[in-house]
């Protein structure tokens, strides 16, 4: 693992149960210092001398590994997964890693992957105009594929990214959310699964617009001085992202 702690696992295959966890902040391994050799070391039985030499070698190896890894680890960095595209992850457990920019397109076994509560994803944007305390979208976790799709087709998510793959169809993104939701529901984590269920329903709604060729999501809300919500554009045909 390099200093950036960024992993591209596209096209990988995890044949056995595997755990991908964030690098620990402290020493990776510890061994007790055996101290200096005793004066009568040469007179000890051969078995005791071999045991002492093994303890000394283990301590020196652990010290060297901790020193090398400390040089690679930059302050404030964390392990990030950049892509699981087309990977077979049915046996994978993700613990404490960053998934903000992770691509899930074409991932196999996504409904069986386990994502613990310490893993992080991107959130929906917040409106900073008339009422900064009021979000433009329902606050929820989103995957990289939805962010790319939104930036290419809708307002409020920033400009399209000039690098990286082109956005995949909205219906495929709904499938990603469905598999992630099922994995959390199987782990009895319904509260976090709710974000993915919401994302699935949103992408299904937008897939219908995509099919009709009208992907622009009009109907941005403004608020008057009294805090009463009013529409600034014509009424949309379907419910909006925010409530």
Q: What attributes does this structure have?
A:
243 residues, 32% helix, alpha/beta, two-stranded parallel ribbon
Map the helices and strands.
Layout: E1 6-8, E2 18-21, H1 46-72, E3 80-83, E4 92-95, E5 114-115, E6 122-123, E7 141-142, H2 144-153, H3 170-186, H4 190-212, E8 221-223, E9 229-231
Parallel strand pairs: 1-3, 2-4, 4-5
Antiparallel strand pairs: 6-7, 8-9
Helix pairs in contact: 3-4
Describe the fold and architecture.
- The protein is α/β, with parallel strands linked by helices and 243 residues long.
- The protein has a domain at 123-243.
- It has helices spanning 46-72, 144-153, 170-186, 190-212, and strands at 6-8, 18-21, 80-83, 92-95, 114-115, 122-123, 141-142, 221-223, 229-231.
- The longest helix has 27 residues, at 46-72.
Which strand-content bin applies to the residues? 5-15%
Q: Residue share in helices?
A: 25-40%
- Bulk shape: elongated
Order of SSEs, N→C?
Answer: EEHEEEEEHHHEE
Please outline the major beta sheet.
3 strands, parallel
What is the end-to-end distance?
Answer: 43 Å
Average pLDDT works out at 80
Parts with pLDDT < 50 across at least 5 consecutive residues: 218-237
Structural class, by secondary structure, is alpha/beta
Strand segment count: 9
Rounded Rg: 25 Å
Helix tally equals 4
Strand order of the largest sheet: 2-4-5
Could you write a compact summary of the structure shown?
Helix 3 (170-186) runs antiparallel to helix 4 (190-212).
């Amino acid at each position: 693992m390099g200093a950036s702690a960024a992993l591209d696992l596209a096209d990988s295959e995890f044949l056995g149960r595997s755990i991908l966890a964030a690098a620990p902040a402290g020493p990776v391994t510890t061994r007790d210092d055996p101290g200096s050799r005793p004066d009568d070391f040469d007179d000890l039985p051969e078995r005791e001398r071999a045991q002492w030499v093994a303890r000394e070698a283990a301590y020196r190896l652990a010290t060297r590994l901790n020193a090398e890894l400390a040089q690679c680890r930059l302050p404030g960095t964390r392990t990030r997964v950049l892509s699981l595209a087309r990977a077979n992850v049915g046996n994978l457990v993700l613990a404490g890693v960053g998934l903000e920019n992770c691509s899930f397109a074409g991932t196999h076994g996504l409904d069986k992957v386990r994502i613990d509560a310490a893993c992080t994803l991107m959130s929906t944007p917040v409106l900073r105009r008339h009422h900064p305390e009021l979000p433009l979208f329902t606050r929820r976790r989103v995957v990289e594929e939805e962010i790319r799709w939104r930036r290419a087709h809708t307002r409020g998510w920033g400009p399209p990214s000039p690098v990286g793959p082109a956005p995949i169809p909205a219906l495929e993104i709904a499938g990603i959310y469905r598999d992630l939701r099922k994995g959390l529901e199987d782990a009895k984590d319904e509260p976090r699964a709710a974000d993915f269920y919401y994302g699935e329903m949103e992408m299904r709604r937008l897939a219908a617009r995509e099919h009709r060729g009208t992907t622009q999501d009009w109907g941005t809300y403004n608020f008057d001085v009294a805090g009463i919500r009013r529409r600034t554009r014509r009424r949309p045909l379907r419910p909006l992202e925010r409530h």
